[in-house]
């Protein structure tokens, strides 16, 4: 009966020991039956890699430059209309960015139409470039999908997006460099810049929802990593170092419990032992 108990313990397929990667195996581990399962950790690692490899999706507003130019022109013309009926000595009010200093500078040059044309052309030309927020620069170091919000069906893959785009800081610096208003003092030019620079805004913006959806779709294409263990397969020997692969195999053993048909074998062994006992 003692022999039977020992055999019973040897043939138990349950595995309950807890290990971490780097631990030393305290006793040999053998698969007592054909077992299959999934490597959850490796599957998730591959799915995370697929998520990271998926291209971020950015929206591009191709009308941003034109809308900014029109905004400037509307504020300019509104100021001009109000100045014509303005009571002498009363301060003009500027409806755009930059405050009333912009109004004083424009009025001092009598609402010069050539200046307005130069400004709106410059704002439109720069605003039509691909401009991204400086905070999103790191996201543009890989291929992206660019979607025109005015025509969502028109999508393009950009392999090196930063090479053909400006950061917001770069775009505003370009406007400041190219701003040409002959006859304006430095103070008046500074006031004008305060009203014009805010019109240059990012027109390339990360679509977080679409990007997250795309990444999950790529992750879901990765099939679970299967683990197959054969009966009597040596999983680990006493003294082995626990690796990530061994941890995954241990996890499969834990989830299967008493797999296969060990009790049938034990019953047969017990009958043999009893037969030998009574024969003696």
What's the total count of β strands? 10
Physical arrangement of strands within the biggest beta sheet: 6-5-3-8
In N-to-C order, the SSE pattern is: HEEHEHHHEEEEHHEHEEHH
Gap from first CA to last CA: 15 Å
Pairing-aware structural class of the strands and helices? alpha/beta
Question: Which percent range fits the helix content?
Answer: 40-55%
The biggest beta sheet reads:
4 strands, mixed
- Uncertain runs with pLDDT below 50, 5 residues or more? 4-13, 258-264
Shape: rod-shaped
Instruction: Using the CA coordinates, give the radius of gyration.
Output: 37 Å
Report the β-strand fraction as a percent range.
5-15%
Mean pLDDT: 86
Q: Given the structure, what is the number of helices?
A: 10
Structure characterization notes:
The longest helix is centred in the N-terminal third of the chain and has 21 residues, at 64-84. The strands form four sheets. A four-stranded mixed β-sheet has the order 6-5-3-8. Strand 5 and strand 6 (151-158) form a beta hairpin. It has helices at 2-11, 40-53, 64-84, 100-108, 113-127, 168-178, 186-196, 208-219, 244-256, 262-279; strands at 29-30, 35-38, 57-60, 131-132, 144-148, 151-158, 166-167, 204-206, 226-229, 234-236. Residues 4-13 and 258-264 have low confidence and may be disordered. The chain has 280 residues and is α/β, with parallel strands linked by helices. The protein has ten helices and ten strands. It starts with a helix and ends with a helix.
């Amino acid at each position: 009966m003692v022999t039977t108990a020992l055999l019973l313990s040897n043939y138990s397929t349950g595995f309950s020991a807890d290990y971490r990667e780097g631990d030393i195996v305290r006793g040999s581990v053998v698969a007592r039956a054909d077992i299959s399962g999934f490597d959850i950790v490796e599957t998730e690692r591959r799915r995370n890699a697929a998520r990271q490899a998926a291209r971020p999706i950015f929206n591009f507003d191709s009308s941003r430059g034109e809308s900014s130019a029109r905004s400037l022109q509307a504020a300019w013309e509104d100021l001009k209309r109000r100045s014509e009926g303005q009571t002498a000595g009363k301060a003009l009010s500027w409806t755009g960015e930059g405050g009333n200093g912009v109004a004083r500078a424009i009025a001092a040059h009598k609402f010069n139409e050539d200046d307005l044309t130069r400004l709106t052309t410059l704002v439109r030309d720069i605003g039509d470039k691909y401009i991204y927020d400086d905070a999103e620069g790191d996201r543009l170091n890989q291929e992206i999908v660019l979607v025109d919000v005015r025509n969502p069906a028109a999508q393009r893959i950009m392999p090196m997006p930063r090479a053909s785009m400006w950061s917001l800081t770069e775009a505003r610096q370009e406007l400041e460099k190219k701003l040409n208003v002959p006859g304006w003092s430095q103070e008046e030019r500074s006031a004008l810049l305060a009203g014009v620079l805010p019109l240059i805004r990012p027109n390339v913006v990360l679509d977080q929802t679409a990007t997250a959806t795309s990444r999950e779709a790529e992750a879901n294409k990765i099939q679970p990593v299967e683990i197959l263990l054969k009966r009597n397969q040596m999983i680990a020997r006493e003294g082995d170092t626990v690796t990530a692969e061994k941890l995954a195999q241990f996890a499969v053993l834990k989830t299967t419990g008493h797999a296969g048909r060990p009790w049938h074998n034990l019953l047969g062994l017990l009958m043999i032992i009893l037969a030998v006992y009574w024969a003696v």
